Amino acid sequence: MLYSYIEALADTGVDAIKFQMHIAEAESSSFEPFRIKFSLEDETRYDYWKRMSFTFEQWQGIKEKCDVLGVEFLCSPFSNEAVNWLEKLGVKRYKIGSGEVNNLLILEKISRTGKPIIISSGMSNYEELDKTVEFLKRHQVDYSILQCTTSYPTMPEQYGFNVISELKNRYHVPVGFSDHSARIETCIAAVAQGATILEFHAVFDRRQFGPDSSSSLKIDEIKELVIASRNICQAIENPVNKKENANFTALKKIFEKSLALNKDLKKGDVITFDDLEAKKPKGYGIEASRFQEVIGKKMRCDKKKWDFLKEDDIE
Length: 315
Description:
This protein is α/β, with parallel strands linked by helices. It is built from 12 helices and 11 strands. The strands form 4 sheets. Strands 3-4-5-6-7 form a 5-stranded parallel sheet. A two-stranded parallel ribbon has the order 1-2. It has a two-stranded parallel ribbon with strand order 8-9.
């Protein structure tokens, strides 16, 4: 089933597939409560981690599957032991979940690898983020930050798009968006707001069992999101100069209009507003934008209804 996920996600065009590495003995205990009591098989959260954990050999297979399909294997460690495993697997970078932002022990462990870190800011205020950022700067770590709201599913009033620009201005690093809304427009809007990294949960069907299914995007939605977000990035990278419209010269001649008459006029008639019409194309009569200049002027000659009105036709 997991390999099917990897194959389906790789086909959507995503750059990376992110996993979570949980080693029960290293990260949890029998005292850890369930965030949401969804498991009927496990007495404690620790039991759940124990049952759901992969062996190192299984992780090797997952990493190899990603490599074969040409998609980056990305993973969030939740223990120093997990970092040891991920180093053996040869990850390029690390993703830090919202609950680990203040865990300077694991950040120290990762910093010593010299690899980039993506931080999710979901449960942290600026005071906490400042301390973590200062820690990473002292260790000369290349880092980026994701705006994230730790709520499943996230409602529109909780998205916090404003935080994207705040994070960029405060830390001057790449900023992204970690989403749990289960709606593609959320990530699309985040890209338009300046997010350069997107993270979201993936599921085949939101009706399937699991604590995060209702907060996830379906595979076909992810395909749409990849295309839309890359189109928006391309648009942002190519700003339009509204001061210059030379590229539209030919079209303007077709779509813009010339003044014409909407009734027969004879020599000596005084032109009124109600005598005028604007017809395509531009260049066959006085420009329509100059209509006020001809009002009150006399006709020098007879003109038929729908004839263009030229400079030589008026006194």
